[in-house]
Amino acid sequence: MLRRRLLAEVGHTPTYATRHTMIPGTQGYAEHAAELSKRFESVSFAEKHAAVMHLLPSAPSTVLDLGAGTGADAAWFASRGHSVVAVEPTDALRQAGIELHGASAFEWVDDSLPDLAGLRACDQRFDVIMLTAVWMHLDERERRRAMPRLASLLAPNAVLVMSIRHGPAPSERRIFEVSDEETVALAAQCALEKLLVLRTESVQAANRLAGVTWSRLAFRMVA
Ligand SMILES: C[S@@+](CC[C@H](N)C(=O)[O-])C[C@H]1O[C@@H](n2cnc3c(N)ncnc32)[C@H](O)[C@@H]1O
With CB atoms 3.0 to 4.6 Å apart as the test, which of 30, 74, 134, 161 could cross-link to 67 if both were Cys? Predict the structure, then answer.
């Protein structure tokens, strides 16, 4: 499947032990992987994605969960019969996800934005791309580079679903303030039609109390 092709094409070993460069946006994740794994898995999909549930397909589809963390969302899609690829560049989170959800419920890939070089080499298109709590880890240059690459992975009529964090953040993370206007404009340049833009409070009580809010955005590939 995709992972086997990826391993062959980008020369990874199945232990994922070949990449030694740290992806800038992943700063602050590996050292807290155990605690974060519990947190990522503690929020139900329906609660976290209430604002966009109506945009997700019910018929079996191909789903890419980008920056999947421990794969909580990927597991939800897989349990509903979708064919899922979870991309996660932080080794400790990916390994924790494999332990939690197994190695065969969906495919795990070690790759990263903005280029997604390994994934794009496989020339697969997806019906849904989930980019949950990831986009604000990219700087402006990376975001400009990433949007066309995301668009190139979407099948006609596919949906791109994003959540972007605002407000206070842990100091060890690399987080940028990203406006909805910028994201909508970048998407429009890539034939991505705006379906939804709204602001929600955090579903995690501690973050809500701290004043964290989220932008929820969704786009449809019209090309
Ligand atoms: C807040 S976590 C969200 C995890 C998961 N999407 C969820 O909602 O549970 C952000 C994730 O983005 C990943 N990440 C950071 N920079 C990235 C990049 N450049 N490309 C892909 N993933 C990245 C991190 O490793 C981390 O797993």
Answer: 134
